[in-house]
């Protein structure tokens, strides 16, 4: 008995103009409804699925209302009595982008753009906040600031020292965490287990590393894509299923209005049995 491998290729897109259905508000999940079902003959002895390409925009916010970390607070006026709260718009921020936005919000609040500045220290991987005047103090108390991204501790109000002159610096106590997203995980309920994370199966088809700058498109084309068992589909045609995108800890992500797409290849093996007089019998 010999075997022949067959394959079927599909592009699945989260774009509604391409037929995506029931797309979630954050853009992470959508349904696929095919005109003709994926059909694996019941005689197949093996079946796998793999992601050979994925196009994902790296725009997932690291500061957002969803993450509850949009606030930046500080005291001014020479003491701990007057608090100003700046509310940052959702976005995927780098150190420089965060500092630029801070300057804009400071001006809108009636302060000079350099009243507070944020910079990075490459040697320590920490952020540094520079005071532009005397009488300023940070306020990272509460759970709604982006202190964790900056690497500052959550201290009680009035715990950070008041500046005595312009140009004073204060560094974060911890390493900055701007890279809150380390990779994307692509899932589908076409598979019940998929690629396991340690001992846990979560219907994962592929892990897409962050390989582009913020705001750019990741084009994932693995040289050796991981094949996932799909024998559960043998003899059971499937025309509707769900696809979703999460971060490295399996939380649904916000695509920030951008669509994503994946190319999958389904492979299966069929036995060929030699019949009488050299004929082939399946």
Put simply, the count of helices is 2
For the record, give the distance between the C-alpha atoms at the N and C termini, rounded to a whole number: 10 Å
Gyration radius, in Å: 26 Å
Percent strand equals: 35-45%
**Percent helix:** under 10%
The description of the largest β-sheet is: 6 strands, antiparallel
| Principal-axis shape | elongated
Low-confidence segments, given as residue ranges, are 276-282
Q: Would you count the extended β strands for me?
A: 16
Based on helices, strands and strand pairing, what is the structural class? mainly beta
Order of helices and strands: EEEEEHEEEHEEEEEEEE
Mean pLDDT: 93
What does this protein structure show overall?
It is a single chain. The chain has 2 helices and 16 strands. With 282 residues, it is mainly β. A hairpin with a 5-residue loop joins strand 4 (71-76) and strand 5. The longest helix has 14 residues, at 95-108. The chain is elongated.
Any key phrases for this structure?
six-stranded antiparallel sheet, disordered C terminus, 16 strands, elongated, 6% helix, single chain, 282 residues
């Amino acid at each position: 008995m010999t075997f022949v491998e067959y394959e079927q290729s599909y592009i699945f897109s989260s774009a509604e103009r391409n037929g995506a259905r029931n797309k979630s508000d954050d853009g992470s999940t959508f349904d696929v409804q095919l005109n003709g079902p994926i059909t694996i003959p019941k005689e197949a002895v093996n079946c796998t699925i793999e992601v050979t390409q994925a196009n994902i925009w790296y725009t997932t916010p690291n500061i957002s209302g969803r993450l509850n970390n949009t606030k930046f607070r500080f005291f001014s006026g020479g003491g701990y009595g007057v608090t100003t709260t700046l509310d940052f718009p959702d976005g995927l921020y780098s150190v420089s982008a965060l500092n630029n936005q801070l300057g804009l919000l400071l001006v809108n609040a009636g302060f000079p753009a350099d009243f507070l500045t944020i910079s990075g220290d490459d040697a320590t991987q920490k952020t540094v906040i520079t005071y532009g005047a005397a009488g300023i103090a940070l306020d990272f108390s509460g759970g709604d600031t982006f202190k964790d991204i900056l690497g500052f501790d959550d201290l009680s109000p009035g715990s950070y020292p008041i500046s005595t002159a312009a140009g004073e610096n204060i560094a974060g106590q911890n390493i900055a965490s701007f890279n809150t997203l380390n990779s994307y995980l692509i899932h589908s309920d076409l598979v019940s287990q998929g690629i396991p994370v340690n001992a846990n199966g979560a219907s994962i088809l592929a892990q897409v590393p962050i390989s582009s700058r913020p705001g750019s498109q990741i084009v994932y084309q693995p040289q050796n894509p991981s094949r996932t068992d799909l024998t559960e589909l043998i003899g059971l045609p499937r025309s509707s299923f769900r696809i979703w995108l999460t971060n490295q800890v399996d939380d649904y992500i916000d695509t920030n209005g951008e669509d994503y797409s994946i190319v999958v290849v389904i492979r299966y093996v069929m036995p060929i049995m030699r019949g009488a007089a050299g004929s082939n019998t399946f």
